[in-house]
Design goal:
By secondary structure, this protein is an alpha/beta fold. The chain has helices at 23-33, 54-59, 76-91, 107-115, 130-135, 142-157, 183-196, 205-215, 229-234, and strands spanning 7-14, 34-43, 63-66, 96-100, 119-124, 138-141, 202-204, 239-245, 252-258. It is globular, with a radius of gyration of 21 Å. GO terms for molecular function: RNA nuclease activity. Residues 181-258 form the HTH OST-type domain.
Length: 262
């Protein structure tokens, strides 16, 4: 990912709308975008259903913030989280925010934080309403985070003896089936390539990735089963990928061209 990793981030979690079992994976994802200098989670910790959060909170050094439910049917947790976010904003202690929730009530908060020039990353389940998703600079689905983390753990746990030995001539790997990527996404990529392409029709992959997220905040190659944007683009026969070496060792420039462009 071509994100800045030196950003100071405030991670604010809505315990009522975030899965406890994915907390560790969520915090690992946060580290991709920056350093979490403030980590808080909001809920009514006197209720039995939040008692199981204690272990994960201690493991990830997250501070629980108590917020009583004053009235049945009203979510006081949202108000406490919004007030804290605005307090943190005015102190100038962070460069961005990570809002972990599937609740559309945080849409206006995300908009306000971005108006103040802060980066806003949203993380929630696929049920998250679209207004909250598009209000963020980038939105990542928790199901995708969890699936990627489970796959990585399964790969690490495989005994070395079971790993296939390297052959002198590796067989040619077939391309991933294109039906995994919706036509609308292919069109989005093609339009984005056309927007930033040079005179020869080539667009830098890093610049392409940034533009895709700006157009569609929940765009993520992992949504379609690919760990990286380069792998996704290579799987699509419509695009040509050109990997060019640079003067620096182990550093290459990856360029993308739409074969159907005129």
């Amino acid at each position: 990912m071509s994100e800045q990793t030196d950003l100071r981030l405030a991670v604010l979690i809505d315990a009522d709308n975030a899965p406890r079992s994915a907390l560790g994976d969520i915090m690992a994802e946060v580290a991709v975008y920056g350093t979490p200098t403030i980590k808080r989670i909001y809920g009514d910790w006197t209720t039995p259903n939040l008692a199981s959060w204690k272990g994960p909170l201690l493991e990830n050094a997250i501070t629980p913030v108590q917020q009583y439910s004053y009235t049945t049917g009203k979510n006081a947790t949202d108000s406490a989280m919004i007030i804290d976010a605005m307090d943190i904003l005015y102190t100038g202690q962070v460069d961005g925010f990570v809002l972990v929730s599937s609740d559309s009530d945080f849409t206006r908060l995300a908009v306000r934080l971005r108006e103040a020039g802060k980066k806003v990353y949203g993380m929630g389940e696929r049920k998250t309403p679209n207004p909250f998703i598009v209000a963020c600079d980038k939105f990542v689905y928790i199901e995708v985070i969890r699936a990627a983390a489970e796959e990585a753990r399964a790969e690490e746990e495989k005994p070395k003896a079971q790993k296939p030995q390297k052959k002198k001539e590796a067989p040619v790997q077939p391309q991933e089936p294109e039906h995994r990527v919706p036509r609308a996404v292919v069109k989005l990529i093609a339009e984005s390539v056309d927007t930033i392409a040079d005179e020869d029709g080539y667009a830098a992959l890093g610049e392409l990735g940034n533009l895709l997220v700006k157009k569609q905040p929940d765009f993520d190659p992992r949504n379609f089963g690919f760990s990286k944007l380069s792998k996704l683009v290579k799987s699509l026969s419509r695009f040509e990928v050109d990997v060019r070496p640079t003067s620096q060792p182990n550093v290459t420039h990856i360029l993308v061209r739409d074969k159907q462009s005129k």
